[in-house]
Amino acid sequence: MEKNAIVAAGHPLITDVVPAEGVSAEELLQAAFSLEIKSDHPQAKAIAEYGEGKGLSGEEVMDYRTYAGKGISGVIDDITYHVGKRDYITDRIVDFSCIADTAAYDEAVGMEGYLSAGRVPLYVCTEKKLLGAIMIADRIRPESEQAIMKLKKQGIYTVMFTNYSENMTESLKNAAGVDEVIWCLLPEDREEAVRSLKERGRVLMLGEGVNDIPALMCADAGFTLSDAADPIVGSADALLQGGGLYDIPDIINRAKGVKNNIFLNLFFAFVINLICIPFVAGIVQESFGFVSTPVYGLVAMVISVILICLNSFRISIAGLGKTE
Questions:
Q1: 3-state secondary structure at position 202
Q2: What is the pTM of this model?
Q3: N or C: which end of the chain has fewer CB within 10 A?
């Protein structure tokens, strides 16, 4: 399962704006806000909402670029700005002294403490100067912990994909209760991760972003949210209405119930035919003197159809497959 909008609430919160030395919080937030209002990523929306709440307005951005799973960049007043993960920032900075400043900044602000608390830093810089970082916290979906607990009771092993590092996501992993987290997973690597998991058993993939399409199509069954974009909906095998992850345990139980009903219906059909064939073939008549007529065959067929229909209706009548 992919983290955003599946395990996490999909609406992160801005917890801290931590400028570097010599940079104001307003300058840091303005640069990030002007770039992020152009993105539809949940973290970008969080920064955009936070900036709007502070009364900010976006500046004109030229040469806007996105780097999937890493960060974004744009030119404001002839200065190139970058917003993204730490490794993206250090790759984009052309002034090596600024990279050293980034390490010093992390130590000065106590970055390890933020990471241990589950905060995700989005660094902001120009190509020659670090402006600081904006701390974001993912909120766990209220129903996610219950849903994952139900999946575990069904004997299903849960795995969460994220492009964050281990210390960033440890608190989210513990809150959600997932069995395993595959860390630092870039969007283009998710399909390969699903292929690797398929070597261990059948895989059901939950995703909601365009980057999840290859993984959804690679999995044995791909689920997405009903309000996802059309390309994602078209690549998934099933849509989740409203409840999202919380619906999965019931869907799995109902699928098992339908499978059991199919086998039971086949059993009824074979048994009734096994009983009735001797009558039709005249074997019972020869042995016991019982005379069969077409009426008996019709009655047996009606009984067979009624039994199969009643057995099929059990799923909806008795709520078969619903979890408590």
A1: coil
A2: 0.67
A3: C
